[in-house]
Amino acid sequence: YGVEVDFFKSALQELGTSVELSMSDTFATDATRARFSSSFTAAVNDVAVGRFDVAVGDFWVTSERVLMTQFLPAVRSDLFYLVTAAEKKSTETFATVLRNPFKPFSGEAWALVVGVAAFTAVCMAFLSVHDSEDFSLEGLLPSEARSWSKTLSLSIFLAFSSLVNGDSRYSTQTLPTKLSYLGFQFFLLIVLSSYTANLASMLVVQQVLDSGVSGIHDAIEQGRTICVPAAIEHTMRLLHPSATLHVYG
């Protein structure tokens, strides 16, 4: 008779009742089946008119059935989902395409990245100018390494070039410059990893399709046909009288 009947029998045993069960070979009487399209509704009606004492099964508590007899609390519930066809819509303009590379970070985060790169450039330029053993900035001759303006401008270029390319643009020789650039390289590792992860998640989100329907009310307003099982047709028409329904089953 099914798992529901086995559960019902086990519940009676746990309660210590001495009820004698007489099971019917049919889910509902033939006379009631002829009146209702659903055999479940027919079984509920048989209980309502006294042909059966109880009906055990996967019954949906519909507006039609609840008027016939009383239902016990549900053991489990079924979920209904509204599924609609969707299309990918692209609303990107040239301006949004230009802004996309900057979306993985907020404005404050970009300000921090630029600030750290600028600070690193100043530090590396200062160390190169004041350390006679280290002319570490590529492109500067030793005689030019004492020029603060040339050293700083090239250091700024190398710092931001490293940030964009993700690799080292400095050639360090002394311990102070090596320690300074090691810290900058670690910062680059964190920034590039975070940027890549955030950009990948954004691209995945952009692939989500949009149907323009967020709920049943949107489907009704747009005049869409909603497919529903015959058992809940009466409930759906009571709750949503203006809905266009296609009944199946």
Which helices and strands appear, and what pairs or packs with what?
Layout lengths: L2 H13 L14 H4 L5 H10 L14 H4 L27 H6 L7 H24 L17 H18 L9 H32 L9 H6 L3 E5 L3 H7 L4 E5 L1
Parallel strand pairs: 1-2
Can you characterise this structure?
With 249 residues, this protein is mainly α. It has helices at residues 3-15, 30-33, 39-48, 63-66, 94-99, 107-130, 148-165, 175-206, 216-221, 233-239; strands spanning 225-229, 244-248. Helix 10 (233-239) links the parallel strand 1 and strand 2 (244-248). Helix 6 (107-130) runs antiparallel to helix 8. The longest helix is centred in the last third of the chain and has 32 residues, at 175-206. The two termini are 22 Å apart. The model is unreliable at 132-137 (pLDDT under 50).
Please supply descriptive tags for the structure shown above.
2 strands, mainly alpha, two-stranded parallel sheet, 249 residues
Cross-sheet strand order for the largest sheet = 1-2
Mean pLDDT across all amino acids? 80
Main sheet properties: 2 strands, parallel
Spatial extent as radius of gyration:
37 Å
Helix content: 40-55%
Number of strands: 2
What best-fitting shape do the alpha-carbon axes yield?
A: elongated
Short account of what is shown:
With 249 residues, the chain is mainly alpha-helical.
